[in-house]
Amino acid sequence: MARKARRRRTSLAPIQTAAQAEARAVSAGVAETLGLEARRGAAFAAEDEGEGSGRERPYRRQPGLDWLARKGRISEAQKAAGLRYRDAFIVAQPTLAIASTLEVQPGMSAGGPSLKALIARADFRQSAERKLALYRRQLFQHPALVAACDLICGRELTPREAGGGDREALRLEAVLLVALDLLAAP
């Protein structure tokens, strides 16, 4: 019995060694990627797996608004205004093309969405476009204010990612604070 256990251990040793080497390589690759992205201005938060799990914690990229809130640079009201802008921005973007009306046949669902679903999606998108237009009017259509909200709220970049450097990031953050104050005003 002991001989079988010893044989099993010796036959599993190369597999375990290879698995450990692969785990170290993956860990090094993740560290390299995080380092490169951090130098470009991305922010990451390590998610807690609980103590004693023995596993490395996964990383989650932080959107710009979350990063600013975590640093205490924006208030809850400003963050809420930015999130409303983000929701309208994301839905208003033309991500899915609506098929030609010549292809749609009422009552038939030939692999695609029904006519009712297409109309509902178009209505939802138009509503988001109207909200986004309203938010941009609240910003007085000012190009710098709109651009700051588009980059940090809409595209979820950190100020450093959006600005490309520390100096531009500080300017962009200052512009964003003004924009969020305007959006958060009742």
Summarize the structure.
The protein is mainly α and 186 residues long.
* Topology as a string of helices (H) and strands (E): HEEHHHHHH
Distance between the termini: 78 Å
- Taking all residues together, what is the mean pLDDT? 85
Whole-number tally of structural domains: 2
Question: Which structural class do you get from the secondary structure elements?
Answer: mainly alpha
Q: Using the alpha-carbon principal axes, give the shape.
A: elongated
- In helices, the fraction of residues equals 55-70%
Spatial order of the strands forming the largest sheet:
1-2
Assembly category: single chain
Low-confidence stretches: none
Could you outline the blueprint of secondary structure elements for this entry?
Elements: H1 2-40, E1 43-46, E2 59-62, H2 64-70, H3 76-92, H4 115-138, H5 143-154, H6 159-163, H7 166-184
Helix pairs in contact: 3-4, 3-5, 3-7, 5-7
Describe this structure in words.
It is a single chain. It is built from seven helices and two strands, in the order αββαααααα. The protein folds into two domains: 2-62, no CATH class; 65-184, no CATH class. The model has no long low-confidence stretch (mean pLDDT 85). It is mostly helical and 186 residues long.
What descriptive keywords fit this protein?
mainly alpha, two-stranded antiparallel ribbon, single chain, 7 helices, elongated, 186 residues
